Amino acid sequence: MTAFEADAGPQVSILVTSPLADLVAARRAAALARRCDLSLVVDHPDGVAELSAATDGGPPLTVLCDIDVGLGRTGVTGPDPALLIATLIEAAPSLRFGGVQGYAGHAQHVAGRDLRRSSVDSANDRIAAVVDALESAGHPVTTRTGGGTGTVLLDIECGVLTELQTGSYLFMDREYRDALGADPESAFAQSLTLSTTVISTNQTGFVTVDAGLKSMATDAGVPTVVGHPDSSFAFFGDEQGLVTTSGSWSPGRGQRLSLVPPHCDPTVDRHSRIWLTRDDIVVDVVAVTARGRSY
Length: 295
Ligand SMILES: Cc1ncc(COP(=O)(O)O)c(C=O)c1O
Known about the structure:
Layout: H1 3-6, E1 9-16, H2 23-33, E2 36-42, H3 45-55, E3 61-66, H4 79-91, E4 95-102, H5 113-136, E5 143-146, H6 152-158, E6 163-164, H7 174-180, E7 194-200, E8 206-209, E9 224-225, E10 233-235, E11 241-244, E12 256-260, H8 264-268, E13 273-278, E14 281-287
The chain binds pyridoxal-5'-phosphate.
Pyridoxal-5'-phosphate (PLP) binds next to loops.
C-alpha cells in the first residue's frame, strides 16, 4: 500500500488480504489505520494478539478471519479455529470482528465453466460452513469477501460472498483469455498491452523486439502479438524477445508492436507508468504508485 492510497482518508476502504505475522508489521498496520479505513485478515490466534497489542489505545481496527477454501495458501482450515479467532478478536477492546475472507485462487484459471463452477461451489461451501458455525455461536458475519475474475459471475450466482475481490478484469491477460475461452467471464475487454519496438531484422523467420524477461511476469508463459495470431513470441534475453514473422507479415526495424501480457498483475508491477490511449493517441498517464510495495 502506498502513502498516497492510505492518505486518501477514511472514505477509502482498504483490505489487506494477506495475514501479517509479527508485531512490527502489526504496528505499521495500526499506524496506517489512523489514516484510512483499514481492515486486516488473520489466520492464527497470535495474529490477533499482535494486532491487539499494536492497536492498544488507538481507534478500533477491523479484523476478518481468513479461511482456506482449497487453495491452501493462508487461512484457517475449518470452523473451530475460526471460532477461536472470532472470540479472541471480540475480546480485544481495540479490535472489531468484521467477518471472513475466503479466496479461491485455485479456481480462477480452471478451464471449462462446469469445472470452475464445481471448484467455486466447494469453496463457497467451506465459507458457508464457517459462517454457520460463527453465527450459531453469536458472532455476526457482516462481510464475506473473496472471488476473482475467473469466478466472478459464478460467485454472484452462488450468493455466499457479500464482497468481490475481482482485480484482473480491469486489464485482462493471455492466461485468463486462454482459460475463459468464450465463457461469459471472458467478456471483459483486453485493455492492457505492452508496447515494444522491433530492434533487429537480420534473420529469416523472426525479428527481435525490445521486450524480454524484465518487461513482464514470466510465470504464465509467453505474450501474444496483437493483430497477428499466427505469429508467436519467445523470450530471447533479459531485454529481448523473439517474434516470428508469418505469411507476408514481417515488421520492419523500428516498428512498434503490441503484446498481450501473460499475467497482468505482476506485469504492472514491473512498470512505473501506464500510458492511457484512445484511438492510438495518448490521453493520460498514470503512475504505478504501488510498484514494488509487496512487503
Ligand atoms: C486474495 C486475492 N484476492 C483477489 C485477487 C484478484 O484476483 P483476479 O486478479 O484474478 O481477479 C487476488 C489475486 O491474486 C488475490 O490474491
